[in-house]
Amino acid sequence: MSNVIYLSIIAVLLGVLYATYREEKRSKPATQYPIEEYWKGQERREFKRISKKLQIDYYYLSTDGNELAKKEGSAKATTTNVGWGGIQFLLPEKLKKGTRLSLEIQLERERSPIRAVGEVVWMEEAPDKAEADGTRIFRTGVKFVGFSSEAQNRLVKFLYEDATS
Q: Which residue from 47, 57, 123, 150 could staple onto 104, CB 3.0 to 4.6 Å apart?
């Protein structure tokens, strides 16, 4: 008989907990649920970025990390934003997700560029940026996957100075 009482008490407690959970879920705005933020296109970057036009040179990297020449040397691009975790720039070519790049980023007021390794994490066509001759342009998001502590320090200093000026 006592087992029946214990099971009844447990069933009532579970019912109360479930009812409380359902009520809390209904009372919260939808934006508090991560899946909602994902599908609504909310910011998912780990680090904030600043809008900045900087000149970069890039080379493709082979799987062993060696630079592969792009046509005759590096290709050039201009960033649209930069942050601690990565950059976005415009390219006249479509790169595959996962493509590794050697980057040389020319910071304002600095003589030498910082060198970093980046990986393409997303790409989308930018019809509003197409060139007059019809060349397609692609917005390209690249996350940093490696750079020296000296380059990290220079980038952090640049971002801090830009954010506080």
A: 57
